[in-house]
Amino acid sequence: MTQVRTTCPYCGVGCGVLATAQAVQGDPDHPANRGRLCSKGSALAETTDLDGRLLHPVINGEPADWDSALDLVASTFSRAIAEHGPDSVAFYVSGQLLTEDYYVANKLMKGFIGSANIDTNSRLCMASSVAGHKRAFGADTVPGQYEDLEQADVITLVGSNLAWCHPVLYQRIVAAKKRNPALKVINIDPRRTATSDLADIHLSIRPDGDAALFNAVLARIADRGAVNKAYVAAHVSGFDAALQAAHASNPVDSGLSRAEIDAFCDLWIGAEKVVTIYSQGVNQSVCGTDKVNAIINCHLATGRIGKPGMGPFSVTGQPNAMGGREVGGLANMLACHLDIENAEHRDAVQAAWRAPTMATQSGLKAVDLFQACASGKIKALWVISTNPAVSMPDADAVARAISNVPFTVVSDVMARTDTGDLAHVLLPAAAWGEKSGTVTNSERCISRQRPFMAMPDGTRADWQIICDVAARMGWKEAFDYTSPAQIFREYAALSGVAAQFGRDFDISGLSGLTDTAYDDLRPTVWPVPKAGHQGGRFFANGGYYHTDGRARMLPIVPPAVQKQAEFPYRLNSGRVRDHWHTMTRTGKSARLSQHIAEPFVEMHPEDALANGLHDAELAELTSPSGRGVFRVLITTRAQRGSVFVPMHWTRAIAPAGLSNAMVAPVVDPVSGQPALKGGFVAISRFKVGWYGFAASTAVMEPTRPFAAIAKTRTGWQAEVAGCKLPKDWESEARTVLNLSGGTASVLSDPVRGTARVAIHDGVILQGVFFASAGPTAVARSYVVSLIGTSADALSALAGRPGIDQPDCGAVVCSCFNVGVNTLRTAISKGASDLDSIGKRLNAGTNCGSCRPEIQALISASLQSMAAE
Ligand code: SF4
């Protein structure tokens, strides 16, 4: 089967892949990854089936044809606009969209409907970086490129668990450090993450202590005479005010000791080639934009920007967050980095689009948009390729707000999502592997996403759906595209208009691409002002985009320490290694679902002690806006007073496991980005009557007070807990397992509060259920492996393998299904480094995403062996 060269649909690294419907491998020629992939990218072929897909439009829960659905969407939006004005409607779109999809959605809303009420889930991801770039540089320009990581002497990571969230960049740093052991890596994060294990120094900063820390660095830069006076004099304004603010701020507010700050400053100031990478730990904060500018201030003061091996570097979370920024997908931007509130820019875009009306001011940003849904201001809402009922802060209130909108449309690839469940109309979109277009990664590299499978009957590309609606609203001529290539050419030509206003984003050199040349487009770093010219770094010699051509340093005042007496724990949230966003895609892969199969709360041992909690028990977290129930994971990697909860679990798979239900809708005042890492919670013990684990051939419903389902190779598994002991364990087991037929074998001990139930259909084991008074101790991977086999009741109810069958334990290496027990055994038998583990077990030798965890296991095992 012919391999197609395309791009991974997950994170902002934007790795190239070679794909068929059966297999995906890294593209050795793509500059982002040179053949590497992480665990998520490696498992892409497991996520492309039609299981769970939306394959026809739906109106009010009933299947419908495309014409009826599109007519209804167009007429309802048109009527709302006619009766209540253009600002009565809104689009909420996604960094998952391809640039061409994004471009036409933005064109429709801003140039034809005449409102700027289009915002995107990228608001949750990097809006503070955009705002910080615009304040400092005059445009949303990323100065550097990935190769800077290989050229740097010091890499500082701020609020960025690269090992799990941008794994291939992490692998590039690992390789760079191996080649150049003098390369120093500093990790700044309240948590000790997998990324910290690579770092020479881990700085467990206080949450939001970043601004105080980088103010301290700026003050030291000046004190030590490390200011690049020539660069500042020629290219930078605001130095004195920024330095004054830095001197006025208290380094102790960073939460670090003087010795830690000294060590950091020695490294950061002492090396010329410094890259500072930052992501959501910086952005998702009430002071995210200030944190971005505190970092950029230090690079501007030293002139360490835009040259090989140096510069501030915001890495985006989503595959096309950058593309969305470029097309003006945020409510406060116009296409091609033009400004919505600049009349000349608006007129130029209006002329290029031949648009009847243009939005003249910023629209509603994400949090405001859903609050307008709640208040009744929004009469028609179109959510495209995203799941705000889970991902927005105050997620339960957002779900209620969406329910309050008189007419909600959701375009998605999946039939069931928490947001789709609230829609009046569902429109089935084409998925990754079926659709065609471009994406831009964190280093400004535009890559093609090419189809390698036919679109399933009943689905359409997002750009096509948007154009179909636009045509029915009366704008057929302006949206009469026949291909993504045609959209791309228009967009590239518009960037040439933007360049005439001195904007950075110029890909007009691609505006003449033929359809064939577009199909063949190689990864291309912008700017591309002329055919054949591409890329490069910005700002080594100034050339900023403020009208005077100078950058701005900003005076940064770090925030006061935030506390809430009744909710004393700071709630941090983020990704796990093997899942993506709300799991609609990665949740389809058994391999990915086995690494971490339930929502958890990571907490420091002393905080666990203070709340009477033990490992693997359940904790209830409450905040003013919501609650959740999570498995307790006690670790010194957590900072005292802070807890961490992953962001991926939804109502459909773990109803009590939504991190964002507990986060207040507080935003950064400059960027409008929600402070998703700034929640406050109280912790209590969740009163559990029984704990359980179940594995079944059937899809289970997560209906118990605590329940989290996950895909396995043979069906599904569930972690469950109930508050009251059931009267009949067999009946309880059948309900949890979703198995009504077959023969049940039951073992129960009322005194100890335990029960075990196995259900066979003939000789085939259909399901096993375990319940106990405390956390259920069974060998999960072993139990799961028995489902669908002819294992007898005795083996199933034993819950662990016999003496002759080793229990591999929880999966660490997803690619080769190597568990923690297997790894520990190999280490005890002399495999004392990653290479020897790889040789014996293959673990860590494919995508490499598990290597930090294996290394941590090796270190811990060797330490305990030495202590024995
Ligand atoms: Fe995809 Fe992983 Fe590459 Fe990100 S690092 S683009 S998730 S393969």
- Share of residues in strands: 15-25%
Largest sheet: 7 strands, mixed
Q: List cofactors, ions and other ligands.
A: iron/sulfur cluster
Number of strands: 34
What does this structure look like?
The chain has 868 residues and is of the alpha/beta class. The longest helix has 19 residues, at 66-84.
Topology:
Elements: E1 4-7, E2 16-19, E3 24-26, H1 39-42, E4 58-59, E5 62-63, H2 66-84, E6 89-93, H3 99-113, E7 118-120, H4 127-137, H5 147-151, E8 154-158, H6 162-165, H7 167-179, E9 184-188, E10 201-203, H8 210-223, H9 229-235, E11 236-237, H10 239-248, H11 258-270, E12 274-278, H12 280-283, H13 288-302, E13 311-314, H14 321-326, H15 343-353, H16 366-375, E14 380-384, H17 388-391, H18 395-404, E15 407-412, E16 425-428, E17 437-440, E18 445-449, H19 462-475, H20 484-500, H21 515-519, E19 524-525, E20 551-552, E21 569-574, H22 590-593, E22 600-603, H23 605-610, E23 618-622, E24 627-634, E25 642-646, E26 679-685, E27 690-696, E28 706-711, E29 716-722, H24 729-737, E30 743-749, E31 754-761, E32 764-772, H25 780-786, H26 793-798, E33 811-813, E34 818-819, H27 820-828, H28 834-841, H29 851-867
Parallel strand pairs: 6-7, 6-14, 8-9, 8-12, 9-10, 11-20, 12-13, 14-15, 15-16, 21-25, 22-24
Antiparallel strand pairs: 1-2, 2-3, 4-5, 4-16, 17-18, 18-19, 21-26, 23-24, 23-26, 27-29, 27-32, 28-29, 30-31, 31-32, 33-34
Helix pairs in contact: 2-19, 3-19, 3-20, 4-13, 8-10, 8-11, 8-13, 16-18, 27-29
Bound molecules: iron/sulfur cluster.
